Request: fold
Amino acid sequence: MTDRVFNFAAGPAVLPEPVLAQAQKELMALPGVGMSILEISHRSKTFQDVIQGCEADIRKLAKIPANYQVLFLQGGASLQFSMVPMNILPTGGKADYIVTGSWGKKAVKEAQKVATVQVAATTEADNFTRVPAKSELKLDPSAAYVHYTSNETIQGVEWHHEPEVGSVPLVCDASSDIFSRPIDVTKYALIYAGAQKNLAPAGVTLVIMREDLLARSPKNLGVMLDYNTHVKDKSLYNTPAGFAIYVMRLVTQWLIGQGGLDGIGRANEAKAKILYDAIDSSGGFYRPHAKPDSRSNMNVTFRLPYEGLEETFVAEAKANKLDGLKGHRSVGGIRASIYNAFPKAGVDALVSFMKEFQKKYQ
Ligand code: PMP
Reply:
């Protein structure tokens, strides 16, 4: 393990070391199978056990009621930007979107291609530094659903409560904070997440959806675009992302070992607090992007006094084995992504580095 660095990348992102070790151990041959997960049929009993075990773990972790389906799809969260309106927005219907950052904007853009989209609130005028207050939401009670992004990965803006939407079905892009804290699934109609941040390597997208929505899909949808296909065939209509699902299973087992979502939630709170405290006590040298009540526990975003110094920060951090701290190309600055598997030791190392850096350059 000595040559591993602290990986602050926003996704694909760090995975738990015990998970990597087990995947490595089993890569030549799964015990009792004589082949690796990369080589076996998705119709085999071995793979059925993996995907069913993964679903069972997910149901247990998030206490998912029986009237919800759990799907393992491909195409990333980006495909969900299209599949959601294609399936659950009846022709002529309208959907409300709450926009708190770049991914929410992208979701709107895709939905607009197939539906009438109403932006129920956007904090773009505030440079996406916060989530909107309840009083700012202009919700339409006749909307087919309300869509929001629980954590905006680029801006580092996270909701710490669900938006109140009354009886309109709530749809959430939870790509970058899925299973980072306890979740009350019953508040949602559909949750989707590209798994490559908190749950798995890239390639698999988790969808958790209430069954009554399935009746909304139009009959003429392409087979792969229809949620009903994937429900009917238990995510095995076509060849699934087997390796990613196998690693997800190892991660769900690891999560259970961390005390489930309560346990990992406490650990994530503690890690984020260490970092925000360091930013807040820097006398303005480090400037947080998000407003305090909207700060993300997953993607900690901040600026330095000037851009050139941010480049120096990223380069010197990398030389100190703190990798992936450059902010997204669209907004600049620094972004420290500290997902479930990111170790507290790495946060401590970053804080020490930040203190030294400030002494040197202030
Ligand atoms: N939504 C959010 C919040 C994201 O962070 C990302 C990816 N960074 C996406 C959607 C797009 O996901 P994918 O690359 O899996 O399509």
In short: The longest strand covers residues 116-122. Residues 11, 76-78, 103, 149, 153, 173, 175-176, 194 surround 4'-deoxy-4'-aminopyridoxal-5'-phosphate (CB under 6 Å).
